[in-house]
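Assess this today:

___
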Amino acid sequence: MVAAPCRSSAQTGASSADASSTVGLISRERRDHAAALRAQEVAEAETAERLRIARELYDMGAHSVGIIAIQAGVGSRVIQT
């Protein structure tokens, strides 16, 4: 039977510190990643809102030009009569 090697309290403390350090590093990376994802979501939401506003402005402008064209056509018929 082979006996398991005994670890000294210094080795156990060192491995515990390494584990704590690794857990802390992973935790910080997760927080940073979550913050980056939130920032990206905010940026995408802003872009989507700007595109929506641009489409609405374009539609309003196109509608106005269409109304102007109709009025001009009606005006020319009124002048001819």
User: Anything to note?
Assistant: The CA atoms of residues 17 and 23 lie 10 Å apart.
